[in-house]
Amino acid sequence: MENKTIIAFIDDSKYSEIVCEYAAWLALESKSKIKVYHVIDKKIPRAKQDLSGAINLGAKTKLLSNLSEVDAEDAKKLHLIGWSILEKANQKIQSLGDLEVETRLRTGDIAEALKVKEGLADVVVIGKRGEIKQDNDSKLGLNIERLVRSSKKPIFIANRKFVTVKKVLVAFDGSPSANRIVDFISTCGFFHNAQVTLASVGKPEKEIGDNFSEAKRVLNSQNIEVSIESLSGDPKLELSKLAKDHNFDLLIMGAYGHSKIRSYIVGSTTTRLINTVRLPVLLIR
Q1: In this predicted model, what pLDDT tens digit does every residue of 24-43 receive, in sequence order?
Q2: In Å, how far from its chain's centre is CA 94?
Q3: What is the 8-class DSSP label of residue 257?
Q4: Per-residue confidence at 220, pLDDT binned at 50, 70, 90?
C-alpha cells in the first residue's frame, strides 16, 4: 500500500454507512488512514437534493421549512448539512476501531473531485447507489459508471449490507489485467485471512492453465488459500450464479477498458455484474 490512505465518497443515502464500514475494514487491515469526502453538486435541482437524514429531527425540520430563494442562503444550508453528514460518518468510523479519519467537504462535480483527490489514495470506496436511486435495486447510481471510468485507482463498490470479507471471487482470464488483480491481492494486505477463488468463464482451463498455476503460486507465497473454477457460458450469468451459490463476500474483477471497442465489450459485462451481484465489487485497472 503506497499511500496508506483509503478515500471514501459519501452522500446522505443508506449506502453511506456501509461505505464507512468497508472503508474502516480496509483501513484496519492495511493500517491506513481514511479520508472521507462529501461533494455538494450544485447542478442537481433542489427538488432532487435529499436534505435530510444527518441532522436531528427538530433542527432539520426548522432548517428545511426556512429554505429561501437566495442562492447564498441555500449554499450555507447545504454546507451545514454536508458537514453534518461528514460528522455522522466520522462518528461511525471511529466506533469501528482506532482509526485516523479526515473529513472534507467539496462543491462541484463528484467525478472531477475524484480525479483531483484519488492520487492520494490506494483504494476509493463508493456506494452502489446514491440518494436518488438508493431504493431502486434494478439500476445503478447515477454517478457510478462515470466514477469508475474516470478513476485510475482500485474502486471498492459497497453493497447494501456489510459483511466481513472471508471468501473472495476473482474473475480471471489470464490477461495482464487479471495478473494485476493477482498482484494487488498478494500485496495489499486486505485478504491475508480470506479464501480466494479464481474463476474463468468461457475459456477451457487448458488454455490458461499456466496462468492459473502462476497466479496460485503468487497467492500461495503470501499464505493466501486459492481454489480454481473453470466455467462455460455467459460471464455475467455464470459469475453471478457462482457468487450466489457459494456465498462469496466480494467479487474482484477488471474495470472498464480504455478503447471504445473494449469499453463496449468489457464495460457492458462490468456494469451488468455490478448491478446484479448482491455483494460488493472491487474493480482494478
Answers
A1: 999 999 999 999 999 987 65
A2: 20
A3: -
A4: very high
Residue 146 has which C-alpha cell? 462515470
Q: What is the DSSP letter of 69?
A: S
Q: Cα 232 from chain centroid?
A: 28
Residue labelled with grid coordinates 468461457: 202
Same fold, 5-158 and 167-284: yes
Rounded Cα distance between 159 and 274, Å, is: 9
CB count within 10 Å of CB 142 equals: 16
Backbone φ and ψ for 194, nearest 5 degrees, come out as -105, 160
Which whole-number Å values give the CA distances from 122 to 4, 6, 118, 140, 166, in the listed order? 7, 6, 8, 24, 21
pTM of the model: 0.82
The pLDDT of residue 61 is above 80: no
Question: CB neighbours (10 Å) of residue 71?
Answer: 9
The confidence score (pLDDT) of residue 129 equals: 61
Residue with cell 442562503: 73
Q: Please state, in angstroms and rounded to a whole number, the distance separating the CA atoms of residues 159 and 143.
A: 15
Question: At 200, is the secondary structure helix, strand, or coil?
Answer: strand
- Identify the CA nearest to 12 among candidates 35, 41, 34, 32: 41
CATH superfamily membership of 167-284: HUPs (3.40.50.620)
Architecture of domain 5-158 in CATH? 3-Layer(aba) Sandwich (3.40)
Domain segments of the chain: what residues?
5-158, 167-284
